[in-house]
Structures are given as C-alpha cells and as structure tokens.
Amino acid sequence: MKIIDFQNEKTQKNYVSVISTSISKNLNQDNFGCIIKNTPVDSFDLFKSICDEVGSPITEQYFDSGTSDSHMHDVIAHLCLTSETKRTVLCKVDHILARLTEIEIDVLSSPIFEFSSGRAAVLTQHEGHYRLRYNGESINTTTLLYLAKDILKKLEDIIVEAGEQYILNQGDCLVINNHRVVYSKTNFSNAGGRLFKSVRLYQK
C-alpha cells in the first residue's frame, strides 16, 4: 500500500491534479491502492478530484463499508471525517493466496457460497489474477459443509494476521482496488463516532 504524506511539503497549485493522476495510475500497479495523509489542500476537494480521475459513477454516501455487494465496484474511496481510535487492516489478495493450500483455493473458487445476491465463488480469476469477494457477515454459512466453513474461518484469520495496519486521521484519504485488497469491516464501522465519506467507483 503506497502512502503519500505531505506533512513537510509546501503547498503547490497543481497538487490536486498531480496526486489524483498518480493515484489513478497506482491502482493498476502492484501497490493496489494509496493512503494520502496531511494533505496541503482542502481534503474534500482532493477527494472529489481523485474520484473524478479514477472512475465513474460517483455515488457519494455515508456507509458501513462492506455491508453490501461492494465487490462489484472496481475502486472504493474513503475520506476520513473523524480520527480513528482503532487501526485499519488492509490485506492484499496475493498475501492471502500464499497462505492457502491448492484444495482451499479450489473450494473458495467454487460457486457454493450464498451471498445476498445469490450463490457465487469467493475467489475468481480475471486476466490472470485472482479477485476475492468476502464479507464474513454477508455469507450464509448454514448450508455449507464443515470443510467450507473451516476454510472461511481460516480466510478471516489470514486477513487479520497478514494484513497491514494503519491509522486514519481526519482528512486522510484511502483509495483501494476493491478486487485486489481486502479491508477489515470492523475497523471501518461508524461505531464510536468514526465516519467516512465513501464512494464506490467503476474504474475508467
């Protein structure tokens, strides 16, 4: 995850354009996302510029991340409106795959998992890369075999153990490739006064 920190930078007129373009390119590279801290310009103006540059449509809303079929969107962007008291956990899909066996990957790649929109696989392949669709609270596990339940539990443990932890402060922006990065829903919840302006995007 790339971190851009402008704490010691001087304000320049073209910051908004430069940062927005850089993040758009970064989403297609190995970092799969970016955190922008201590922005030298108005954070909401920067956030909107990033969303305009990255994709469309822009649907601004306050929401508890990961509670719906957000896997369908290519990019998720957050503007932190209040400082966090807990750490945000982000985990790349490739780091998860490295800790799974071939059998576990095969099970997760089977369309046996019941989401709110119907049965689907947790892992899918697209252009030679795995994508992961996972929200522990949205999968109905009552009809799953014990093997599949155990694998889902292992998946959840891996996300916590292998994930990188970050603190988001007021005005920080987080932009991630929604297919290639998994984030902890608990740490994104609005409980305790933490609130995000959040946008789901289809990448241009």
Give structural notes.
The protein has 204 residues and is of the alpha+beta class. The protein is built from six helices and 14 strands. The protein has helices spanning 15-26, 43-54, 93-97, 102-108, 146-162, 185-188, and strands at residues 2-5, 33-37, 55-56, 60-61, 75-80, 88-92, 113-115, 118-120, 123-126, 129-132, 164-166, 173-177, 181-183, 196-203. The chain is elongated and about 55 Å long. Strands 1, 2, 3, 4, 5, 12 and 14 form a seven-stranded mixed beta sheet that branches. A three-stranded antiparallel beta sheet has the order 11-6-13. It has a single domain, classed as 4-Layer Sandwich (Double-stranded beta-helix). Helix content is 28%, strand content 28%. Helix 1 packs across helix 2 (43-54). Mean pLDDT is 79; it is low at 62-69 and 186-191. This is TauD/TfdA-like domain-containing protein. Keywords: Oxidoreductase.
> What is the count of β-strands?
14
Report the CATH superfamily.
Clavaminate synthase-like
Helical/strand content category: alpha+beta
Tally of individual domains: 1
CATH classification, class level: Alpha Beta
List the secondary-structure elements in sequence, H or E: EHEHEEEEHHEEEEHEEEHE
> Which shape, going by the Cα principal axes?
elongated
The first-to-last residue Cα distance is 21 Å
Strand content: 25-35%
Mean pLDDT: 79
Low-confidence stretches: 62-69, 186-191
What fold name stands as the CATH topology? Double-stranded beta-helix
If helices are DSSP runs of H or I spanning 4 or more residues, what is the number of helices?
Answer: 6
In CATH, the architecture is 4-Layer Sandwich
Largest sheet: 7 strands, mixed
Gyration radius, rounded: 17 Å
Which bin fits the share of residues in helices?
A: 25-40%
GO molecular function: 2-oxoglutarate-dependent dioxygenase activity
Organism: Pedobacter cryoconitis
InterPro entries: TauD-like_sf
Protein name: TauD/TfdA-like domain-containing protein
